[in-house]
Amino acid sequence: MPDQTKHIISHYDAALYALRDDVVMMFKLTDRLLETALAALLNRDSELCKQAIAQEDEIKTFGKKIDREGLSLLVLFHPVATDMRLVVSGMKVSANLAHISDQSVIIARRAQCLNSRPLVTQIELVEPAHRQAVSIFRDSMRVFAEGDCELAHVLKPRDEELDKLTTNISEELVSRATLDAENVPSYLDLIFVSRALKRIGDHATNIGGDSFWRDQAMDIST
Q: Which pLDDT value is given to residue 9?
């Protein structure tokens, strides 16, 4: 019986580590997709657009794998306290990563449309929002991987800054569209890109909050 118990514990620990490692790998894949999509947009590279869109399937596969692993852990081992929070937060982080990959594909598809038309210089407007969204995203995963609770607390204020940036971008593009009817489709594409960056910030902030809850057993806003 002791040998069997030891085997069960060993299998349980291995399953927990596997779940965490898969979430980290899903982050790396999502980061690659986001970078590819933004490079496709800013460099007007339609081949990169195709690459970004093709990368989404691998991320979805990882998300499904993490869901299966998490459910298996919950059903077979009935984890409690810290272990339970680790499993649940891992599944929630995976869901947010899937949403970020969706928004990255939106950017890539909008970039395809933009690349088929003459360049509009207002594309430069999205660069500050792009940098802020990527920074929040990568720091949210530091919170997940390293348990950096102090960093978790600054994600929300930075996300609010990103919200202001994207609102200003949309307002500027709408204003520009009233003066330049010929390029309205391109301005609309850039507005959708701006909204995608805003949502990436939202989902990244959720990752930080879920990771904080895992480690501190409380909501980050309390």
A: 67
Q: CB of 196 within 8 A of CB of 103?
A: yes
| pTM attached to this predicted model | 0.94
Distances from the Cα of 84 to the Cα of 92, 149, 179, 217, angstroms? 12, 19, 56, 11
List, in order of start, the domains of the chain with CATH numbers: 2-216 (1.20.58.220)
pLDDT for residue 86 is more than 70:
yes
pLDDT of residue 5: 57
What is the CA 22 to chain-centroid distance, rounded?
15
Which residue, chain included where needed, has tokens 């869109």?
A: 53
User: How does DSSP assign 152-186, residue by residue?
Assistant: HHHHHHHHHHHHHHHHHHHHHHHHHHHH-GGGHHH
Q: What is the pLDDT of residues 179-219, one digit of tens each?
A: 999 999 999 999 999 999 999 999 999 999 999 999 999 99
pLDDT for 53 equals 97
